[in-house]
Amino acid sequence: MCKSPMRGKFTAQNFMERNTLMRIIVTILLCTFLIITGCAGKKGIQNIDYELEFEKGKKALSKKKYIRAQNHFNTVVIGASHTELGDDALFFLGESHYLTKEYLLAIAEYDRLIRRMPFSPYVERTRYRICQAYLIMSPKFFNDQTYSEKALEKLQEFIDDYPNSENRLKAQEDILILREKLSQKAYESGVLYMKMEEYSAAILAFKQVIKLYYDTDFIELAHMKTIACHIYRSDFDEARTYYNEKRADIEKIKMDDLVDQWFVQKRVFDRIELQ
After folding, report:
1. How far apart are CA 118 and CA 78, in angstroms?
2. 210-250, pLDDT tens digit by residue?
3. CATH number assigned to the domain comprising residue 108
4. Cα dihedral 53, 58, 60, 63 in deg (nearest 10)
5. Contacts of 94 (CB under 8 A, 6+ apart)
6. CA–CA distance from 265 to each of 100, 157, 222 (Å)?
7. Is 274 in contact with 243 (CB distance < 8 Å)?
8. Residue 204: CB atoms within 10 Å
């Protein structure tokens, strides 16, 4: 007995219809579930006194109970989002992370406040805190200086935007310290290239010191090492020319004595008169 082709066609169509119906039912059930749970959640959230949570957070912060403070402030930030109270809680949430030395988390919360509430009374303090956080994370000169560069950038922006801030002088001092550190980093890179006898690369490093960190204590040393590199490469005319051009910028270092020493080290007996 042969099967009708219409029966197979009907079965496939029936399956598709059932599948579509099941999807509709699941969608309706899911929406119903979300509405019910959403209403219940909203009702629960409305029962929270966010001002009280905020005050509890500040009290915990003053008692150095930072984790507890974070919990209170997080509740306010989530439940009272995009309100003045919620934005204020963002600042203190950042403070609670800052005081536990979680500087990257603190910076993240401070940035959220600046983006969400650029006219908040806490913004100036927040931006200076970001500067301080990056400054604290700035390592010794021989390590990666990403945080130092970020701190320098943020400090300069802070001074530009808040020229009358009470923190201006301290920010300027910090900028000088950071520039000195970055200058030393570039200078020591040049010295390392010299030890490897990569004199062209060393000269480029010293040029970076001279160009970018002209107000640091490594300028004269960079000039000195540049002359040394030319001498080590036997570029005596270049050494003489460079010295004559930069002579006015080099006052504290007795260049003649140092140049004599370099010539001896390289066993160059025909000393060039640089004066």
Report:
1. 19
2. 999 988 989 989 998 999 999 899 888 898 888 888 877 77
3. 1.25.40.10
4. -160
5. 106, 107, 108, 109, 110, 113, 126, 129
6. 53, 47, 19
7. yes
8. 16
Taken in order 201, 232, 181, 142, the sign of the CA dihedral is positive
Position 9 in a domain: no
Which domain covers residue 64, as residue numbers?
50-122
Report the pLDDT value the prediction gives residue 30, as an integer from 0 to 100: 47
Greatest alpha-carbon pair distance for the chain in Å reads: 118
Report which of residues 271 and 155 the model is more confident about.
155
Task: Residue 4: count other Cβ atoms within 10 Å of its Cβ.
Answer: 8
Q: Are 85 and 54 in contact (CB under 8 A)?
A: yes
pLDDT at residue 274 tops 60: no
Q: Are 98 and 64 in contact (CB under 8 A)?
A: no
Q: Which two tokens stand for residue 37?
A: 């749970």
| Alpha-carbon dihedral sign for residues 131, 137, 143, 147 | negative
Which pTM does this prediction carry?
0.73
Q: How many domains does the chain have?
A: 1
The token pair that represents 156 in the structure block: 């300069």
